[in-house]
Amino acid sequence: MLQGKCAVITGSTSGIGLGMALVLARQGANIVLNGFGDHEGPRAEVLAAGQAHGIRVGYHGADMSKPAEIEAMMAYAQSEFGGCDILVNNAGIQHVAPVESFPVERWDAIIAINLSSAFHTTRLALPGMKSKGWGRIINVASVHGLVASAQKSAYVAAKHGLVGFTKSVALEIATSGVTANAICPGWVLTPLVQKQVDARAVADGVDGEEAKRRLLAEKQPSLQFTTPEQLGELAAFLCSGAASNVQGQAWSLDGGWTAQ
Length: 260
Ligand code: NAD
Prior knowledge:
The protein is an alpha/beta fold. Helix 1 packs parallel to helix 2 and helix 4 packs parallel to helix 5 (153-172). Helices cover 48% and strands 13% of the residues. Strand 2, helix 2 (40-49) and strand 3 (57-60) form a beta-alpha-beta unit. The structure holds nicotinamide-adenine-dinucleotide.
């Protein structure tokens, strides 16, 4: 379905971004990976997923808090892959603390990585998408783009901002063949959430399995984690022709979290 397209997926060396890369690779898209830590392992996995289509997989290590590095990544997608057809703004970090003692540096980093990076990638990707008359922008927001939780002020502010940004961009591009939508996952068991599971286990004096059960029971009525694979399949749907008129939505995959 996506043969010949190039997907740039920020924060795709791990978790949800890697899950999305694997699904889009299986659909035949070339992939530009981004993120910290080991990238050779993820690159090999994604290449294998798209092997039947002979896809190419690149990597750019841009730090999403640095606009100049984001510009270099988008230039790399242009020179190596003929541009970015599918942009998945996924890189994100979390910090949990009450607002009055929230570290100022963590606030700035969360806003830069979880929100401002999507502005930079989008402004750089749109001219190419518009000239081709086709493009998909998929912003990985969160249930926290729709509702709040205590002690996550920066994250909630950034994710609500990302949902608003998505709507505004969607209106600007509505007749261009490009769509912009947000995906709002509930709990997904990735390294980002494992840290919160570990903190809960210590705080409650319980083991990891019980900490997971308690986190889910508090917020996610299905009592199941959403998986990176499910989020990848939703991204693939948003890239399909069936979704060409889905515009400016915030689509939850949260086991009922925001239905409460
Ligand atoms: P993760 O920690 O597994 O992955 C985060 C990725 O972002 C990694 O590849 C990491 O290297 C990269 N990254 C971090 N800082 C970066 C930076 N400055 N520049 C470039 N890359 C950077 O986390 P995840 O759970 O897969 O989260 C992915 C996205 O999904 C985030 O935006 C997160 O807010 C969102 N999300 C996660 C959950 C969840 O329950 N895990 C729920 C809703 C939304």
